[in-house]
Amino acid sequence: MVTGTGMMGTSTTDTAPGVQTASLRLMHLVSPSLPVGGFTYSQGLEWAVESGWLGDAKDAERWLTGELKATLAWLDLPIAARMMAAVAADDQDGLAQWTHLLLAARETSELRAEERQRGRAMADLLRAWDLPGSADWRDLLAQSQTAGFAFAAVRWQIPVADALGGLAFAWAENLVLAAVKLVPLGQSDGQRVLMRIAAEIPAAVDLACGLGDDDIGASSPALAIASACHERQYTRLFRS
């Protein structure tokens, strides 16, 4: 009779590798159900579709892969790594410096507003989770959702490379879901696009982790144009 044991009467809990708490926390942190509003933004994708720049799955994949390689790898991910280092060192001044740089690098008022709006929601969530220091750091964390992500990753002892990979995947998933609605794409097409973008994330994380401070920076003219135009788009599904 099977009574919850493995072969030779050995309990499976004695032999199976344990699920790491940090991995589970990362899944929680990147979940699309996290109430920070990531699914309400398209980062210019909505205007790019309406203008005819993007018309099918290949276009959407090319757009998002380009943003991953040209923007996230050179800006968001290396700054997130430095934010984690500042939190680990209990260095609020350092976190403020990187937060201000990230906001300055957001090329439109829409992108800056998204960073701050999601930052406020993330800061409130961190306090609801009772993460140590979240109340004392709240005003700073509320300026940037990336800062809040970094704070949670450090408090939950998530390794830096894993955290950066999760941040990139959450970004990709939110925007692929937006593309499914906007292009539109079928659910299967969307999942294929997400798989191919995800395959590029490890290289983006490796690049980000190898950058020096003076190497950090990115400019995406197409994203900036699309986002700026989206601010005044007459009919839209996504927030500005």
UniProtKB/TrEMBL annotation:
Is Cytoplasm there in the keyword field?
yes
UniProt-listed InterPro entries? UreF (IPR002639), UreF_sf (IPR038277)
- Cellular location of this protein? Cytoplasm
Keywords, comma-separated and alphabetical: Chaperone, Cytoplasm, Nickel insertion
Entry's Pfam families? UreF
Describe its assembly. UreD, UreF and UreG form a complex that acts as a GTP-hydrolysis-dependent molecular chaperone, activating the urease apoprotein by helping to assemble the nickel containing metallocenter of UreC. The UreE protein probably delivers the nickel.
Per its UniProt record, what HAMAP family does this chain match? UreF (MF_01385)
Task: Provide the family line.
Answer: Belongs to the UreF family.
Q: What does this protein do?
A: Required for maturation of urease via the functional incorporation of the urease nickel metallocenter.
Which named protein is this? Answer: Urease accessory protein UreF
